[in-house]
Structures are given as C-alpha cells and as structure tokens.
Amino acid sequence: MHPRTSAGMGSGAIHHHCAVLCDNSHQSGSFSALTAAKAGSNGFHTRPSHGVWLGGTTGRKPRLASMSDLPVRLGVRPKTSASGPHRQKSQQSPPSLWGRTVSAVLSLPDVVEGHSAVSPAGTRAVFLEDQLVPRSHVTSLAPPSERLEPVHIHSVFDTSLHLCLPVERAREVCAQGWGEPHKYADHETEIMVYGPRDREELATVIDLVKESIAFARG
Q1: How many domains does the chain have?
Q2: Cα–Cα distance between 194 and 147 in angstroms, integer?
Q3: Which end of the chain has the least Cβ crowding within 10 Å, N or C?
Q4: Domain region containing 189
Q5: Strands of the sheet with 179-181, listed across from one edge
Q6: Which of 92, 96, 193 is nearest to 141 (CA)?
Q7: Given this model, what pLDDT does residue 31 score?
C-alpha cells in the first residue's frame, strides 16, 4: 500500500474504518454527492466580500489568468492530520457544498470518476477519458505504473482535494492560504487544497482543478 494511505495506521484498520463510514453514508443516503448537491443553496455559508476579487462584482468570481490574480483565502488555515492519511480536520465544506464540488469537477469536459490508486476508500479520483498515461510523473498523484490521476476529492468527512500544479503555482496557492504541501508527496507539484467554505471559494477551487487538468494535458 502507498505510504499516503498507510502512514501511521495498519492497512486493515484504514479499510475497515473507511468501509464503515461509506456503508453508513450509503445506508442513510444523506452524504452522497447527488443528495448533497440537491440540498440547494441553504447549505452555503456566505461571508462578507473582503479581500481582492477581480473580474467584476457580479458573483465576484476570481480570475486566475495570471499568478497575481489569486486572492488570499480569508481567515486561519484549517487543521490537518499530523499522521495517517493526509486529511482536513476542521473547516470542512458543508455537505451540500461538498456535493456541488464533486458535481462541478465531474462535469468538466472529458473527466470521469474512478477509484484512487493512492487515497482511502470514499475518495473520488479524477481521470481523463482521453489520457490514461501521464505525460510526466510530476503531473499525477498516482505512481507511474497507475492511470493518470491529476486530482482526487476526499470524502464528505474531509472535503479537501489533492492535485498537481506547476511548482511555482503550487507554492503560490499554498502561500495565499488555499492549501498546503502534500504530506506524502513524491514531488513538489503535489498539494492539498482545502475544501471550499462558500460559493466564492468553490469558484476558486474549481479553477485550480481546471489548472491541474491543463497541467496534466501539457
């Protein structure tokens, strides 16, 4: 098993823990991406619009055309795990917003959902329909022997994402408060992006996912 999923825990314990969480969520039906996405706008936590937002006032969606366009994420960073799988432990997305994140990512052109080669059960791997093999090992979260996996989305109990970006862009995303280096990264291109807390942050996170997919395509 890859160290990202086994560090600090036995593989049996991880699979048992994830199986219980996934089984409970499927039985209740309350935490599926589809159910969460249908929950509507009442699940959003909105905040006053502070900071630097470019691209007009309507929706205040930040443009990411150049590195300087990335706004600073407001507030303190969430807590993340010190051992075991790299996971977000506070400030998780509300379930309905997590569902919208999953739906938005999996609705991107030529993207398909799959099982991650490196992350615990419940994680949604983002694969590309027309590109199975990475053009470079630094563009994928998975080992070179596995299918190209530029992005994966962790479960509703976590809500963060892991993705790959060019090194300088990855550093900037972390410096602006949107994420942190992957604790078990093989390359500097791999980072965690925190789960979005509201619609404004969702727009930024989806743009970063698009950048990661573009990086994978070359």
Answers
A1: 1
A2: 24
A3: C
A4: 3-39+62-217
A5: 111-115, 124-128, 151-153, 161-164, 190-193, 179-181
A6: 193
A7: 40
Do β-strands 124-128 and 190-193 pair in parallel, antiparallel, or remain unpaired? unpaired
Closest CA to 161 of 218, 211, 110: 211
Residue 100 sits in a domain whose CATH number is 3.90.1150.30
Residue 197, judged by CB atoms within 10 A of its CB (0-12, 13-18, 19+), counts as buried
Look at residue 45 and tell me if it is in a domain: no
In a domain, 92, yes or no: yes
In a domain, 12, yes or no: yes
- pLDDT tens track for 13-36: 333 333 333 333 433 333 445 444
Give CA–CA dist 80/78, Å, rounded: 6
Rounded to the nearest 5°, which phi and psi values hold at 32?
-75, 155
The verdict on residue 32 lying in a domain is yes
Residue whose pair of structure tokens reads 């589809």 in the numeric block:
34
Q: Which candidate, 88, 69, 82, places its Cα nearest to that of 176?
A: 69
Give, in order, the Cα–Cα distances in Å from 192 to each of 57, 59, 166, 206, 212.
Answer: 29, 25, 14, 14, 12
The H-or-E segment that residue 35 falls in is helix 33-37
Residue recorded with tokens 């314990």: 13
pLDDT digits (tens, 9 = 90+) for 47-68: 333 332 222 223 333 344 444 5
Task: Tell me if residue 125 falls in helix, strand or coil.
Answer: strand
Tokens linked to 178: 């949107």
Low-confidence ranges of the chain (pLDDT < 50): 1-3, 5-32, 34-67
